[in-house]
User: Fold this.
Amino acid sequence: MKLIEKKHLVAWGAFLLIMLLMPNFVSNGTLRIFIFANFLAIFAISWDVLSGRTGYISFGHPFLIGIGVYATAIMSKRFGMPVEYSIPLAVLITMLGSVLIFLPALRIKGSYFALVTLAFMELAYQLVQVVRPDLTGGTRGIFGIKTLTRGAENGFYMSMSLMFAVAFSAWLIMRTQLGTALSALGMQEESLEGSGKSTTKLKLAAFMLSAFIAGLGGAFYAHYVGAIAPRTLFDINFLFTIIVAVLLGGSGTIIGPIIGAFFLTFLLEFLRPYLPGAGRYFIYGAIALLLYMYQPKGIYNLLEKLYQRWRGGAA
Amino acid sequence: MTQIIIQGMLLSGLYALIAIGFTLIFSVGRVLNLAYGAYLMIGGYVYFYISQQLGLPKGIGLILAAAVGCLAGLLKYRFIAKPLKGNHVAIEIATLILAIVIQSAIILVFGESTKILHSLVPGIVRLEGVTAPWSNILATGLSWVLIIAVFIFVRQSHTGRAMLAVSQDPKGAAICGINGEWINMVTWGISGLLGGVAGVFFASYTQLSPFMWVGPLIVTVAIVIVGGIGSIIGTLIVAHIIGFLEVIVVSYIAPELRGIFTMLLIILFLIFRPRGLFGREELA
Assistant:
């Protein structure tokens, strides 16, 4: 089997085309929902590259995203740095920050690793409010960050192209030997080591890739919304949204997290008229829990099965 | 100085109280129940509903809080821990999702606003110029009683010793005729019960809010990690270390930094000494 087949490229092309034409068909309100879905998809891909593949479950992804968000917000708002510099720098800083959660991964795994990352997130939440509040804006966060786009349509194109670029590159990378090795890391770390691969290097690669995507997504997100606050960022609910998007869509795939992110964002919007406020998360969480318990491979796997059954029936 | 000792003792007692149930479940099932914080919340809200909205006696509120917490624990075992048996990470993720579901269910029923709980025993007492609510003193006393009770239960009773056996070697325990599933279920039930009771006290110490589960969950995780898996005495000691650290930080450094040492302790211990201070990989 060839690694990159024509049908894959056709599918990616069709996906891009549909997304590009989207603003012609839907209202600006729907576009704004799409923007959030795009960002969530980026964060979900970032989580999946690390946790979905290697099995090192990160409960601290908001920590990485938060570094990217805060770095660019502080540099552009407080020091007047142009966005062209602040975003790449923020991505770099996020990757450096990910070393902090990479080092524990050398010693511990499983539940313990997840807990360390969770502790990092809470630590960041508390520190950001007290250390240099003149820079971080303390509890209230930072307002009036320079926004890159104006209007729903531009925002949509920006977030969509970013999401597509991230998804397609991640997909290409996962098709290489590196991707295979990362999945192998998740299955049997010991035997991978036995086959002469350096698991440390592989882990580092996964963390760096994940942090790169998280930082990129976070930085652009900061310049889209224009205002950030610690409680919405370093938050267990935010973490929950990211993880659930991946698990619902299907972890260990690229398209899965995208499906999950879109499904969740639109589910929330669909529920808005019936259940305003945080009560919507009840339905959303219940669906997530049921699917996770009974369909742990996610929607993508479900669709694949249906497709195969349909083809089997036709042939 | 006296002030710090009194406040430290009270806070530590409260922390020990909320950590016992988590220790039990972590020791026997080796499962991180991230929805543990939600037991506290359930306990607090049941008490609120019974004693403040229905106006029934507070004692009934406390008993029902314990009962509902116990029920929640049993349901959680039956529908999450048992089907996902052995897959610890999956249980963690599932309990995290469950915690959010419970949080939003509470928002649906009681709304998002915080509520003040009338504590079990009203009034405050002055000790050496420090004001201490009776409820906190009661919580501290109760935490000691419960910890000793759990300790004796695990050491002396048949069920408790079976728990110990299951935590050390599930297969060996099964060969000896111990029904591991039953023991696990009992443990989840007791853990929920303790959580429900602790929730009533914790909520009267802080406030009742749908988001109150994260803070105590992290404190509990810290206590169990630093104390060492399965060490009940470790839980008691570390609850005091963390409680006193927090009080000292609040009085001498800055109130905003109160949780930072807790987080640092978790990170450092998990990396450098994952079995904790008193961890002997067994219960008691």
Observations:
- The longest strand of chain B covers residues 124-127.
- Strands of chain B lie at 124-127, 130-133.
- The radius of gyration of chain B is 18 Å.
